[in-house]
Design brief:
Layout (H helix, E strand, L loop, with lengths): L2 H10 L3 H9 L2 H11 L4 H13 L10 E3 L9 H19 L3 E6 L26 H16 L5 E5 L4 H10 L10 E5 L2 E3 L17 E3 L4 H8 L2 H7 L4 E6 L10 H10 L3 E7 L9 E5 L2 E5 L1 H4 L1 H4 L12 E10 H8 L8 E10 L5 E10 L12 E5 L2 H4 L12 H18 L3 E2 L5 E3 L7 H8 L5 E2 L3 E3 L2
Parallel strand pairs: 2-3, 2-7, 3-4, 8-14, 15-17, 16-18
Antiparallel strand pairs: 1-9, 5-6, 7-11, 8-11, 9-10, 12-13
Helix pairs in contact: 5-10, 15-16
Length: 461
């Protein structure tokens, strides 16, 4: 950004205090300030600010919400046959190199008391493998299984991009080909006060916020990675977030359901544990399938029960999706179409006169699930929470490293017991994805073996 453009922008949006502050800086600091300013879309931020002043907060489409069609876990012969058909279709996509994986990994581990990218947090029950390592080993195992490398794309943030790249480089990409792993940074937007003032983080930097996980669909397009993947023949993008160690990477069954329905965006859901669970819910809004955040859904719908006393709107969001790349291209081709949501938070803003002052900051972000209503066809399938969903959100209590590690241990124990292995009570187990990527592969590997596990055991690579 040139000084002339910056001055025009500050005058246009009546940022007199920031203009005066910029004018007072040394030439060296002005250069840094201009570099910083050139990285953000101030016009977009102020446009969103203006739009938010006109929009009243409230429950989203409260009167037009209905249960959504969701494929439940198959238990009938017909359902099981359909799942097997989906498996075959998904395996074909993987063998033909039609699938890439996107991991949203812009967060830091600070909420977990960990310095560094959240993906570098150790989580597995015995070896303490990190989230990134588990995902990479799963992808390597899947690539070997289907004889075709699966491209991996990772969305980082301004804060952790360099550390994430260094982490992968220092660990030799955990056995993946470095040329098959790409990174791009999440977009950032300036934070605005309710009075329409941009805030400063320090003398030369604006206070900013990430543009949300929906920004991954904009970032992969803007970075050129979408075109690169499509030129390689990739047609489907498996999407997940870095905090769930139970994700079945590039799950062929999920891919198959998505493909057989001709879906442009598909979603995995789990049954809500209770009416208080704070999770987005898969519903139909005005005749279109969508995910609505619990805070927007309202108590009437969050607490609604069916005629059998079960939760009516039961499909809890897992943040696991598949999107067709052509659909992602369409979301961007005439300007990014996902809506921005406003959230308010207190921030410690730097004041030009010196020191810091607590201020209310408005941040604007997008949610990836808001793409669902734009899709021509959609698909939602139910999966087992115990097998596929144990996110790491908090340092202690629910959704913490302890609960995720315990969930992994329970899952591996069940895989072994289903394969005829006797596991002593209290013995912890861990199975490397490179030993067996799923229950079925483990059963094949251990067929005919008589094994008894009496102590903590790691089945390694």
């Amino acid at each position: 950004m040139t000084e002339e453009i910056l001055v025009q922008m500050l005058r246009k949006y009546r940022q007199s205090s920031i203009f005066a502050h910029y004018a007072s800086l040394s030439q060296e600091k002005k250069v840094v300030f201009l570099e910083e300013s050139g990285q953000f879309d101030f016009d977009l931020a102020f446009s969103l600010y203006g739009d938010s002043l006109k929009t009243k907060a409230g429950a989203a489409g409260a009167d037009s919400i209905d249960p959504a069609p969701i494929l439940t876990i198959p238990r009938t012969a017909e359902g099981i046959a359909r799942k097997e058909e989906a498996l075959r279709a998904g395996e074909t996509l993987l063998r033909e190199g039609k699938v890439a994986v996107l991991i949203v990994a812009g967060g830091q581990g600070s909420r977990l008391g960990f310095e560094g990218p959240k993906g570098a947090f150790p989580i597995s029950p015995i070896k303490g493998k990190t989230l990134f390592r588990l995902f990479c080993e799963s992808l390597k195992a899947m690539s070997l299984l289907y004889g075709c490398p699966i491209p991996l794309v990772i969305m980082t943030s301004r804060e952790n991009d360099l550390d994430t790249r260094k982490y992968f480089d220092s660990h030799r990409y955990f056995g993946l080909e470095s040329g098959n792993v790409d990174f791009f940074q999440q977009g950032m937007l300036p934070t605005v006060t309710p009075e329409g003032e941009f805030l400063l983080k320090d003398e030369t930097h604006f206070f900013t916020n990430p543009d949300g996980h929906g920004g991954s669909l904009k970032g992969i397009y803007d970075s050129g990675l979408l075109d690169r993947l499509m030129s390689r023949g990739v047609s489907e993008l498996f999407y997940c977030q870095v905090d769930n160690p139970l994700v079945r990477m590039a799950d062929p069954v999920f891919l198959g359901y998505h493909h057989l329905k001709g879906s442009e965006m598909s979603t995995k859901v789990v049954r809500r544990e209770n009416i208080e669970e704070k999770v987005g819910v898969y519903v139909t809004v005005g005749g279109k399938e969508a995910i609505v955040e619990y805070s927007d859904l309202g108590g009437k719908h969050m607490e609604a029960l069916d005629d059998k006393g079960n939760i009516l709107y039961w499909g809890g969001n897992t943040a696991i999706h598949i999107l067709s790349l052509e659909f992602v291209r369409r979301l961007n081709s005439h300007g990014f179409v996902l809506p921005y949501h406003r959230a308010s938070r207190p921030v410690d803003a730097w004041k030009p006169e010196g020191g810091f002052e607590r201020a209310e900051g408005w941040k604007f972000e997008t949610f990836v699930f808001d793409a669902i209503p734009f899709a021509g066809k959609t698909c939602a399938i139910e999966v087992s929470r115990e097998e596929e969903f144990s996110p790491v959100k908090n340092s202690e209590g629910p959704d913490s490293p302890r609960t995720a590690s315990e969930a992994m241990n329970r899952l591996f124990r069940k895989w072994l017991e289903d394969s005829g292995v006797s596991v002593a009570p209290g013995a912890r187990v861990e199975i490397s994805p490179l030993f067996a990527v799923d229950r079925e592969r483990l059963a094949l590997k251990l067929a005919g073996e008589k094994i008894e596990i009496t102590r903590d055991t790691y089945l390694g690579d």
